[in-house]
Amino acid sequence: MTMWEAFRSFVGSNFAIVEVLFTATVALGFGAYQIWSVNREIAKDKAKKAERRDAE
Description:
Layout: H1 3-13, H2 15-55
């Protein structure tokens, strides 16, 4: 059995696990990006608010 045949056999018999792991990776990656993006925007807003407060 070649390495490719072993890989195809593994993926074929465990396709559900592979699909769940791929989907979970994409979903968690997107969620992490959203948290990072929102935190960055909050920090920008706080900096703008502090800048306006200091200017007054």
